[in-house]
Amino acid sequence: MKLPYAEPFRIKMVENIQQSTREQREQWLKEADYNLFNLKSSQVFIDLLTDSGTGAMSDQQWAALMTGDESYAGSRSFQELQSTVERITGFPYLLPTHQGRAAENVLFSVLVKEGDVVPGNSHFDTTKGHIEFRKAHAIDCTIDEAFDINDLYPFKGNIDLNKLEEVYKSHPKENIPFCLVTVTCNSSGGQPVSLENIKAVRELSNKYGIPVYFDSARFAENAYFVQQREEGQKERSIKEICKEMFSYGDGMTMSSKKDGLVNIGGFIALNNQEVFEKASNFTIIYEGFITYGGMAGRDMAALAVGLDEATESAYLESRISQVEYLGNKLIEYGVPVQKPIGGHAVFVDALSFLPNISREEFPAQTLGLELYIEAGIRGVEIGTLLADRDPETRENRYPKLELLRLAIPRRTYTNNHMDYIAAAVSNVYERRNDITKGYKIVKEPAILRHFTVKLDKA
Ligand SMILES: *Cc1c(COP(=O)(O)O)cnc(C)c1O
């Protein structure tokens, strides 16, 4: 008999989680103003809000934590982190930050100014927030295939070179500080970018003298997809692929809460000494001295180990195959999901799931609330709430896709949990025709509204 797949780890410590009743959940949602971010974690049975900072550290990481060096300047833990980052990415200059958006804040303080445009592939929400906060614009150059959830193209995170060149041709060079490549592409469904595409972006950008930076929160998952899907990459190690990928960039911002396998942290890594020196000043104002930048020494020590673990094939296989397992179950039950299944999450297509809910009533949010009521599972809306209003016209922006993201924390849940989630989504799908009313906004902030928006039944 062919042996089935089994995880390359065993469990050393467990955390209890609790079930609740439907009546309790309905009450809690009302108290939370129908915003899943307002729930207490104890009110959630399986938490798929995000894969950010929610994973389990290994015994080796916990051991490293105990050896952290808490010196204010020049700590050994910083040096360990710096040499690990340089070995994996090739970038020699490192600035730790307290998380990914802080890395964006520091780097963009140096590079982005009013009136600039930053082309890229579906910029992440905080990234777009930091660009627009500086009165600059993010221009999405993702390939069109990304917006057809049934298109099986293997690299739906790719940048459309024609769209990118159009941006380069239609704006003066001084107004294009860099092109930003997000690996994997979160907003369009955890979809990877091919090495070939990254290389072509570099060549095109060189032609116009524009730097290339990576938003690299899930760079290891991207490298795994390259290894599995791109021609000629099968025999290469994840670390070799990462090294080549980063060789096409001038620097990166990182949210260590994703492929750093830690609960908090981020960093900027750079090739250019001048950018590093300017960014160092902003790090000191916003984050802390340049050898800790908002991170404890012990957290940098655990991150150094996490980066090595996250770039091992066996770990990535267990990670990506669990997400795929959930996705395939949902496909089996007839639920419309984005295909191919992404790296960190399964994205349910709310527009075809809930055809009776108009876009003004937030179909993906409505689906998220229904799934919580059904089974105590918390996902997150990737749709109109997240897309915010246009900064100038203040009109709602309706993105091409309206998705409910079920993000899977790393090394945290078992496949029994995946079975439970799939059954719950299927139950909501069975009663989809009875769901005829969505939600309306009662109160919202000026930017990044999805975190704090208050809603009520429409
Ligand atoms: C999470 C994330 C960020 C922001 O990082 P935080 O650590 O949450 O501040 C930026 N870009 C991408 C692609 C991300 O996934």
UniProtKB/TrEMBL annotation:
Domain of life, per lineage = Bacteria
Question: Cross-referenced InterPro entries, in alphabetical order?
Answer: ArAA_b-elim_lyase/Thr_aldolase, Beta-eliminating_lyase, PyrdxlP-dep_Trfase, PyrdxlP-dep_Trfase_major, PyrdxlP-dep_Trfase_small
GO MF terms, alphabetically ordered: carbon-carbon lyase activity
Q: Is Lyase one of the keywords UniProt gives this record?
A: yes
An example of a Gene Ontology BP annotation on this entry? aromatic amino acid metabolic process
Q: Which UniProt keywords apply?
A: Lyase, Pyridoxal phosphate
Q: Does the keyword Phosphoprotein apply?
A: no
SUPFAM superfamilies to which the protein is assigned, alphabetical: PLP-dependent transferases (SSF53383)
Cofactor(s) the protein requires to work: pyridoxal 5'-phosphate
N6-(pyridoxal phosphate)lysine modified-residue sites: 258
Show where the Aromatic amino acid beta-eliminating lyase/threonine aldolase domain sits: 47-423
Checking Pfam families in the record gives: Beta_elim_lyase
UniProt family annotation: Belongs to the beta-eliminating lyase family.
Any idea what this protein is called?
Tryptophanase
Origin species: Soonwooa buanensis
